[in-house]
Design brief:
Blueprint lengths: L5 E3 L5 E3 L4 E5 L6 H6 L3 E6 L10 H11 L3 E5 L5 H20 L12 H21 L7
Antiparallel strand pairs: 1-2, 3-4, 4-5
Helix pairs in contact: 2-3
Length: 140
């Protein structure tokens, strides 16, 4: 069986690895000689506008609308370049998957009878509390 060299986003969207542009640099920060010499920071760039990963144009349009082009992910969390590359790919997949999700439309509902009753009771309580704070009149 042939190994699939694509990032699995959804059943319909799989990003070919050759479309990802990887660049490596020193990560900076504390770490002494290792941080100064090793290029462990990973910058992953993906251009959804020209990608063959999308089966439908609506998917491409949704990703472009929500994330724009190009999509960049920068990771320098770990000391290992391989681990940072894996994390960057996971974050890219999460970003694209999140942008593909279709939000359910909200359906307006009416408040229940109990909710209306509780709201009116709390208003009455608040009103009574404020009435008790008032300075007593001549009649009282």
């Amino acid at each position: 069986m042939e190994e699939d060299d694509r990032l699995f986003v959804t059943d319909a969207v799989r990003i070919p690895r050759f479309e990802l542009n990887e660049s490596f640099s020193a990560s900076g920060g504390p770490g002494g000689q290792h941080a100064n010499k090793a290029a462990t920071r990973v910058e992953l760039t993906f251009d959804p506008a020209t990608s063959s990963a999308f089966r439908y144009e609506t998917q491409r349009a949704r990703v472009l609308e929500r994330l724009g082009t190009p999509i960049r992910v920068v990771v320098d969390d770990e000391r290992s370049q391989i681990r940072n590359r894996t994390i960057a790919e996971e974050r890219l997949v999460a970003k694209v998957r999140g942008s593909l999700r279709v939000q359910a439309t909200r359906r307006a509902t009416k408040p229940s009878r109990g909710a209306k009753r509780r709201r009116l009771e709390s208003k009455a309580q608040r009103s009574e509390l404020k009435r008790q704070r008032m300075r007593p009149g001549i009649d009282d």
